[in-house]
Write a structure and sequence with these properties.
With 277 residues, this protein is of the alpha+beta class. It has three domains: 84 residues, Herpes Virus-1 (2-Layer Sandwich), CATH 3.30.40; 55 residues, no CATH class; 123 residues, Jelly Rolls (Sandwich), CATH 2.60.120.380. The chain is 25% helix and 31% strand. The chain contains five helices and 15 strands. The strands form four sheets. The protein has a five-stranded antiparallel β-sheet, covered by helices on one side. Strands 7, 8, 10, 13 and 15 form a five-stranded antiparallel β-sheet that branches. Strands 2-1-3 form a three-stranded antiparallel β-sheet.
Length: 277
């Protein structure tokens, strides 16, 4: 069996890199969490089987994650996105602490004289030879520690029901004119990063939504509207995502067709918790 075949189970089919946070999707295949979430937001289907996938169906594979973590620690890998070579941990290398240089030992023993200029230089060289590698090793260890830190997305959830008691907009001049009930939710982002929004219909209603920065103006639906990196909507689900900075946002949830009411749920996935008000 070739090394490529041996490593196949540890490689994400999207990123082609060793897993950091592997998850099993509804199609039965395993992907890197961030990669498959972005794929679902953009396409809504499996990259392999083309069947419909849902972000909330992703299940973390803890056993594979630990295996991949050990695999990364025993391998030299290359990250093409960051143009960085990742080395194995330093503790894998064995250093012979008893090895000495007989020539230097002999010089120190026979010629050690603080009044001798050549010996002063020798002492400086010896001290420098210990201090410099120690500083270098400390820097490398810290860099490796940072490179092995897993970035795991956090999912925040919210649910409610659209009823005739909600605010509404009477829209005309569109494909489906009429009354659209809506709910606005304040979303506070505390950490910059990519956030994916998934609004799911929990009833017979069609569902839609838009995100606004700072505030929502019901008389001008284009004011403060965010231009999405991804957006895909159908009758029962709406997906969208973007790179958001730390700020206050307003999510307006409504229906795709007019005059509808029903329950819905919201999932927001990103690098930190999202708070709803």
């Amino acid at each position: 069996m070739t090394e490529e075949n041996e490593n196949a189970e540890f490689i994400c089919p999207i990123t082609l890199e060793i897993f950091r946070d592997p998850v099993k999707a509804g199609d039965g295949h395993i992907y890197e969490r961030e990669a498959i979430q972005r794929w679902i937001l953009e396409h809504g289907t499996s990259p392999i089987t083309r069947q419909t996938l849902q972000i909330n169906d992703l299940v973390r594979d803890e056993q594979l994650r630990k295996m991949c973590q050990r695999k990364r620690q025993l391998s030299v890998s290359y990250n093409p996105q960051e143009d960085r070579v990742i080395l194995p941990p330093l503790q894998n290398f064995v250093r012979n602490n008893h090895q000495v240089n007989p020539e230097i030992t002999n010089i120190i023993q026979t010629n050690f004289n603080m009044d001798n200029i050549s010996n002063k230089r020798l002492i400086l060289i010896i001290l420098f030879s210990f201090i410099f590698p120690s500083s270098l090793i400390i820097g490398i260890v810290q860099g490796l520690k940072n490179s092995y830190t897993d970035e795991i997305d956090i999912t925040s959830t919210y649910s409610d029901t659209l009823t005739t008691n909600n605010s509404y907009i009477n829209q005309t001049g569109i494909s489906y004119p009429g009354i659209y009930y809506y709910e606005t939710i304040q979303v506070n982002i505390s950490v910059d990063g990519f956030y994916g929004f998934e609004i799911q219909s929990q009833s017979a209603i069609s569902i839609d939504g838009d995100l606004y920065v700072n505030y929502f103006n019901s008389t001008d639906l284009s004011s403060n509207l965010i231009s999405y990196t991804y957006k895909d909507k159908n009758y029962s689900n709406t997906y969208f995502g973007n790179f958001l900075s730390s700020n206050k946002y307003v999510l307006m949830i409504t229906t795709y067709f007019c005059c509808s009411q029903g329950s819905f749920s919201l999932l927001v996935t990103g690098p930190a918790n999202v708070y709803f008000y």
